Amino acid sequence: MVVCLWVPAGPPGIVGVAHSWRPREPLQGVRSTACMLIVGDDAWDPVGHVIARLLLPWSLVLAMGISVLGAASARAVPNSSDGSPGTQAVDCPITVPDGVDVECGALLVPEDYERSDGETLRLPYVILRSRSADPEPDPVIFTAGGPGYSSLDSVWMFADSLLLNDRDIIIFEQRGNRYAEPALTCDPSVWWEETQGGTPCLDTIQARGIDITQYTTHNIVRDVVALRAALGHEQWNLYGSSFSTLVMLLVMDADPSGTRSAILQSVRPPNETTFAHEADSPLRAIEQVFTDCAADDGCAASYPDLADDFFALVRRLNAEPVEVEVESSTVGELITLEMDGDRFIDWVAIDQLYGPVFPHHDAAYLPLLVDEVRRGNVRPLEIAAQNAWNTNIENLNWAWGLMLAISCQQDQPAAGPSRPEADLAASERLEGFARTATQREICAAWDLAPLPPAGTDYVESDVPTLVLAGSYDPVTPPVWSRTTAEHLPNSTYIEFPGHGHNVTSDNACAAKLEARFLSDPTTKLDTSCVEAAPSPSFVLPDDVFRAPGLARSGEDVSIGAPDGVAWIEALTVVSIVGLFSVAAILVGLGLLWMARARRRTHKADRTALVAYVLASLIVLTTIAISLLTTQLNDDYATRGSLAFSLGPSRDLASAVLLAWISPLAAGVIVTLAVMTIWAWLTHRWHRGFRILTTMTVLCSLVIVMLGIRWGLFTMLV
């Protein structure tokens, strides 16, 4: 084991510890380092590992002394104490995946770049070290979209990335985000006050002495440029998604010599804002669903009036909203919401189009969902509302203060006081829908002075750039990405027809293209995999089993977790314990009968033998139903709860088996119940055996109840 301590570029002090260190390039932003070998290799020597752990505290003391002595004579580098950016090592503020070599630090920058005596911000970053023993010197720098969405949890997204094969990936938290200091986060429990004219979020930010005027796109750009200089990289490769493409475009413009290449997906150009496209961008994506469904024979036959049905449903929900309940983790109780036409468009249609548009992603279920809700199945609305609440309202990765600071000071003023004619026309077709209406209301209440917009034109740059877009993107339409690429002469534009805003989600082709591009950004890309990528396709009614209630199974029975329904869980536990007891008795009884049969001392009643077989089948089918239901819930933990609410897919073996076993179990239970009643009335069988079959039937009634509740017995209808 090797123990290293290092002193960062900044004020003297020991602030970093690493163990099991492997040789690589010198740590960036580090003033001095002291390392000492304790013993062996703990990965292969368990005895040495134990000794190493025992000696570790004393070794740290010694190494610390060596490091401090080295630091005393080291040359000072720029740091926040004199107003210029610097870095320091910090404990990782997030949980990182196992087996990934990471280094965590923080960039120290002034809140106001024009003041040397102002507040200092600590902006965390995580460096995912390359799998290569000799990585390329130019890492990838990534920061997330939003604005206001935290970047650091993206370590899980990049942990398996092909990009790590050749170079490090740096994930940078923007100023004001969740893990930054200070963070412009606000308690989700006060969200309703913000939407009703109150300003508790803004009041909290200002009470903390934060200068909200310094939380802008331009300062985020300056932070990114400062990070490259502070880490000592001559060049790096930019990676942006959604809002952060705007940041990276401005970084390309501000720091061209430090930019080797750029990857931009779902581009937000400087001269565009969603406030000017509240309805026309979503409408374009929704109408793409109608167009592609009509072009597919199966989809067109199953949903011949999809567009008319969609708009009729929006009108109906606006006239008669459906009440849905969502569970709030911050309030600690159920909250009743009205699912009107606007929320249906936003939370159901638009949110699903962020992902891929092919099975088994939620967007592929949109035609079926419209058809089901139109026929009265509101369960998908309940699921969509809960998903939207968790993702958009109570998601701790959102820093609402930062999102609103940029939106209210830059984006909304840039859009102007009136909306474009095309957007107004689209809003009229969507029955008055305007996606940023709530943000406009909050901005009016906050009443912040407008700041200069992010830009007024497309960025012109010679930096080699890969631009990716999804045809179904409802937020940053493909035309923004395409036009951006036209202003970048060394760019490659690729549009994926089966993808939405998160264009790289479930997209192996995009991952390969990004890796190939970074290996040599100046070489023409082989884009043949795009033609082989999944095309848009939709789930048809015959593709699923009609058991929408099955999606409740995980909510009804969640033994060991606080999510289940108490009385259903209690009955289920009693039923399972009872049936296992029956199983044990049946095994013993079967062994006894076989022993007697061999000695020919007992001739069993044939009807009792039939009852014995039926009772055994009930135990087996009940166990099978329990296991298959659990497996289905596990399958849809990754496929999505919205899809589950429309019925399990027929391509899942667990669903097929459940569809056949459930009615078989019901038939066996009814048959045994009839035979047991007959046996009691005619005094057939031994009394103990009659009690056993009665117990079997009573315990299995819970399965009958759940089967009816979940729709298990009609899956084949």
CATH superfamily of the largest domain: Alpha/Beta hydrolase fold, catalytic domain
Q: Count of helical segments?
A: 24
Mean pLDDT over the full residue set: 85
Biggest sheet: strand arrangement: 4-5-6-8-7-9-10-13-14
CATH fold label of the largest domain: Rossmann fold
The CATH architecture of the largest domain is 3-Layer(aba) Sandwich
| Largest sheet, strands/sense/barrel | 9 strands, mixed
Structural class: alpha/beta
Short description:
It is built from 24 helices and 14 strands.
Describe this protein's structure.
This protein has 717 residues and is an alpha/beta fold. The chain folds into three domains: 1-77, no CATH class; 99-543, Alpha/Beta hydrolase fold, catalytic domain (Rossmann fold); 548-714, no CATH class. Helix content is 46%, strand content 12%. It is built from 24 helices and 14 strands. The chain has helices at 46-72, 155-158, 191-195, 200-207, 217-231, 243-254, 280-294, 297-302, 306-319, 341-352, 366-374, 379-393, 400-415, 421-429, 437-446, 478-486, 508-519, 528-532, 553-556, 566-599, 606-639, 641-644, 653-682, 687-710, and strands at 2-8, 16-19, 30-37, 86-89, 102-110, 120-128, 140-143, 169-172, 236-241, 259-265, 322-328, 333-339, 465-470, 491-496. Strands 4-5-6-8-7-9-10-13-14 form a nine-stranded mixed β-sheet, sandwiched between helices. A hairpin with a 4-residue loop joins strand 11 and strand 12. The longest helix is centred in the last third of the chain and has 34 residues, at 566-599. It is elongated. Mean pLDDT is 85; it is low at 1-81.
